[in-house]
Amino acid sequence: MKKQFFLLAIIVVIVTGCGRDLSNVKTSLYGHWVDEASGIHYYISDGNYIRVDDEGAEDKLSYKVVEHDTVKNTIVIQENVENGAGDLKEFTFENDDREAVEVVTDTSSNGNISDYVKEVVKDITQEETVENWEYVDDKQKP
């Protein structure tokens, strides 16, 4: 009986230790995601992510969490925090399973662009892009 209990306890520890942490929106973002429209893969970890396009080219970016709201299931990050520039991305999880997320990128927030260039770009393009990502697995590197 003790052996069975011990075996059951080990199995419970292993099963609960696997998978991603859904206890808050920040850690729910960690893992491997794919954009439904473009097929671009994202591997997200604490403060960094790797974007892999359909040809296998990798971009490594850092980010900082600017705000998060567990009730609304949202998180906002600022990319490339080392040089003070980068886009703002707002992630809104579709539900508490957090396996699908809408990603709105605010390109007007990029600190490397002058105000004049921002106005010109604003006149000819949209300032926000919207993507829909699906969770793939818990890998944080390709």
Question: Could you give a short description of this structure?
Answer:
This protein has 142 residues and is an alpha+beta fold. It has 3 helices and 8 strands; from the N terminus they run H-H-E-E-E-E-E-E-E-H-E. This is Lipoprotein.
Report on the structure:
- It contains three helices and eight strands; from the N terminus they run H-H-E-E-E-E-E-E-E-H-E.
- With 142 residues, it is of the alpha+beta class.
- An eight-stranded antiparallel beta barrel has the order 1-2-3-4-5-6-7-8.
- Strand 4 (58-69) and strand 5 (74-79) form a beta hairpin.
- It starts with a helix and ends in a 5-residue tail after the last strand.
Keywords for this entry:
142 residues, Staphostatins, 8-stranded antiparallel beta barrel, 3 helices, 8 strands, 21% helix, globular
User: What's the CATH architecture name?
Assistant: Beta Barrel
Task: Please give the domain count.
Answer: 1
User: Cα-atom Rg, whole angstroms?
Assistant: 19 Å
CATH topology name, in short, is Staphostatins
Percent in helix? 10-25%
SSE order and pairing:
Layout: H1 2-17, H2 25-28, E1 31-35, E2 41-45, E3 48-52, E4 58-69, E5 74-79, E6 88-93, E7 100-106, H3 115-124, E8 128-137
